[in-house]
Amino acid sequence: MRIRKRISRILATLLLLTLTGVARAETIRVAIGTQDTTINCAAGGLLIRELHLLDKYLPHTGKYKDARYDVQWKDFTSGAPITNEMIAGKLDFGVMADFPGTLNGAAFEKGGRKSVFITVLEGSIDGSGNGIVVPVDSPLHSIADLKGKTISVPFASTSHGMLLRAIKAQGWNPDTDVNIITQAPEVAGSALKAGKIDAHADFVPFADLFPYRGIARKIYDGAQSHAPTFHGSLVDAAYAQKYPEVVVAYLRAALEANRLLAQDPEKYSLLIENVTGIEAPVDYLYHGPLGVQTRDLTWKPEYRQAVATAIETLRLLKKTDSHLDVNTFIDDRYIREAFKESGIDYEAALKNYAKEPLIANDAATGKPIRDLNDVAQIWLVGEDKVRDYATPAQAFDALGKLGSGAKVRAVYVQDHGTGLKLFADQAWYVKDATGTVTAFLLKGAADAYARRVSGSVVDYAAARSGSQAVAVR
């Protein structure tokens, strides 16, 4: 009898150990929906995947001691299909902008579930990144010229919100004073080339990519709306509650990707080009120093407001009837823990509004560049680093001295009034009597500045006059 009881106890113990082992050996799925071509999402998707950064941080202690991970990556061109896959239980994380992210939260709410915004990846408190472009040979030069025109935009996107705010600022009725149609960027590119639309509004990177590819010209930058915009990451709240350490691991990988971008933006811009086909100069426009947006993983009040604005705007558009509470939809506990475990001061980062700094010497004089208001840069094919110049005139002079075999990836200038980073061949310039050359995105801004300094407004070719022509791209 005693022997039977001992055997029973032994068997029970073995069964318990077996079951415990099974639990510890659980396979945990980590399914992440990315937007590779939306290049300001790189730190939350493409770079983590391509550099295998997530593997470094996934937990393997405590309850995860014997856990196995099934990491899945799925790439999409917009946020809506990511949301569909998350709702269907096929994805755990999703990377998208403020507007589609809000629709994600509303979709979860409608299904009796919850998703949470866990981090910002990259954005602009003024709205840079979104923009409006027109065909290259269009006579239109500002948003004021768009009354009565046909403007396409991806509906319910962050750029749609920008467009509506810009129209409202003009005092126009969006239903009668302009003709707004829905159009994906892939379609809009062809429509711009064929002259089938008067203008196109879009999100990162298309308002800069289309001009770079020579099929459009930017006439409005989202920064003119002064409405914050960002792309960030969301997670299924139930998943986060079950595996909080996995969520923190993902965010630690994003922090490392962000650090690498800051450390070597040229190298990783080339990697992004290799994966997405989005040319490296466009990627650098965002990720390089003084870039179009800031890579900021903290929940600044302006980004919280962007989510609130998205909820309000989407309700007005009748795209949702959700009453999402921003205070619970945004959950900063995980990113704060990721900062802590990575040895980074979250509160200090939260207070930092600066763009990625430019710390460089002038390539012509060797002297440190102090004034960043009018810097210019040249990126040559075959060179690992971008050349920096204190002024556009110095950069243009350097272009003229390049040999005939030199190939230029891109030339960059900063808008004198706003500090916005621009492709030099897309800017307007003011030349004054002293020979100083000053860059502007908008012709109207250049005209006003020219009147103040008794200068003349010229295009890129004229701004470079006197220098030997070197083909860019």
TrEMBL record:
CDD domains: PBP2_SsuA_like_3. InterPro entries: SsuA/THI5. Keywords: Signal, Transport. Coiled coil: none annotated. Residues 1-25 form the signal peptide. It comes from the Bacteria. Belongs to the bacterial solute-binding protein SsuA/TauA family. It comes from Trinickia symbiotica. Residues 64-267 form the SsuA/THI5-like domain. This is Putative aliphatic sulfonates-binding protein. Part of a binding-protein-dependent transport system for aliphatic sulfonates. Putative binding protein. The lineage of its organism: Bacteria, Pseudomonadati, Pseudomonadota, Betaproteobacteria, Burkholderiales.
